[in-house]
Amino acid sequence: MKNEALQDAVSMLDDKYIEEAQQPFPKRKIAPTAIKICLAAAACAATVCAVMFIPHGRAADILVFGKNPSASPVAVRSCDNEVGVIRAFAVEYLDIPVSITSSDKTVVGISGGTLYVEGDKENVYNADFELELFGNASLVWTVPLSDRSVEYELTAQTGKHSRVLTLSFDESENKWTVCEKSAG
Amino acid sequence: MDDEKIVGLFWQRDEKAISETSAKYGKLCGKIAYGILGNPQDSEEIVNSAYLRLWESIPPKKPNPFMPFLAKIVRNLALNRYKAEHTQKRYAGEFAVSLDELDECIPDKKSAPSDAGQIREALNAFLEEQKPESRKIFVLRYFYCESIEEIAVKTGYSEGKIKSLLFRLRQKLKTHLESEGISV
To answer: In Å, how far is A37's CA from the nearest CA of chain B?
Structure first.
């Protein structure tokens, strides 16, 4: 057989190759299978942790009266010329335009006042309900400004990110202002 | 005991030469014979015959290196047994598989077969051109008749990688033999 002629030639190989083949191969830096499995399991666990604990996406962008309240407090109502008697007996409601920009679902809640989507006064939400938004939205937050000691909050939750805006009366500036309380 | 001392024992006609050879190379000889014959009883017979052949040939010979000399004796005896008997019974050894693989190396050229010496020279020249690692793998497969699995364990590579490396080597060998004008 032809291949046996080759095998006969292999039988007559140079001694140095026959000796060389018996020398051990250099150790390759390969992790044993058990270590590979452990590494894979650790990677899976890390992925699960990341999915569970790391906030997804990014927080919604919020503008109040077209301004960013996280940069500096936004004055929404000045009381410089207010007469004391009016302040005492009149209940004034302020409509605060809140623009929310997000690519994910955002849940908006308020601690006081009412909330509705601009152009949709039929559906007005109060502090007992949360408004679910998908994508961008323009809202109107209506708040009574009768009691200067009261603070109101608007919370926007996007995934694990939370933004809280606080409406409060700034005695030193004599203004109602909205500022960012915290960002998650 | 080092090989030089073993050869010295043969020269002194000391029967301890056989036991020392068996202790140092018995396992290797058994593997070579088993790889070709695939039968433990036949392999044991071949190894014993190889020791007898050693006893008869040393002296006058003084092989240096000793191991390839012994390995070639075992291989040739096993091949002779294989050729004599493979028409009567089918061997399941690695040799039968490696023989089929070597079919791929046979040049397509139809001309008078080259003599064994020419094929041997061409094969040695081919191995000289290969990287040491590839060369060792080739010799382990086709001289020592080791299985793909055994070579994978020795090298630390996957069986798939060994198979593809051997495939490429066979293709290269075929091209080399053709370029050398070898016909089988």
So the answer is: 16
The ipTM (two decimal places) reads 0.85
| Residue A68 distance to chain B (closest CA, Å) | 59
Verify cis geometry, omega within 30 degrees of 0, for the bond prior to B60.
yes
The position carrying tokens 């001392």 is B5
Q: Which pairing describes strands A93-101 and A175-183: parallel, antiparallel, or unpaired?
A: unpaired
Rounded to the nearest 5°, which phi and psi values hold at A155?
A: -115, 130
Q: Do B123 and A23 touch (CB under 8 A)?
A: no
Inter-residue contact B126 to B182 (CB < 8 Å)? no
Question: CA-nearest residue of chain A to B141?
Answer: A21
Closest CA to A11 of B24, B90, B27, B102: B102
Put simply, the answer to whether B156 touches A21 (Cβ < 8 Å) is: no
Nearest to B155 among A5, A11, A25 (CB): A25
The model's pLDDT over A8-49, given as tens digits with 9 standing for 90+, comes to 888 889 999 999 999 988 876 656 677 778 788 888 888 877
Indicate the domain borders of chain A. 2-53, 61-181
Q: Please state, as a whole number, how many other Cβ atoms lie within 10 Å of the Cβ of residue B126.
A: 21
Chain A: give the shortest CA distance to residue B32, in Å.
11
Q: Which of B76, B139, B157 sits opposite A18 (nearest CB)?
A: B139
CB contact under 8 A, A15 and B65: yes
- For A126-164, write each residue's pLDDT tens digit: 888 888 888 889 999 999 887 888 889 999 998 888 899
CA A26 to the chain's CA centroid = 51
Start-end of H helices in chain B: 3-11, 16-37, 40-57, 66-85, 94-102, 116-129, 132-142, 148-155, 159-179
Residue B134: closest CA among chain A residues belongs to which residue? A21
How far the first Cα of chain B sits from its last, in Å, is 42
At the top level of CATH, the class of A61-181 is mainly beta
Token pair of B78, please? 């096993």
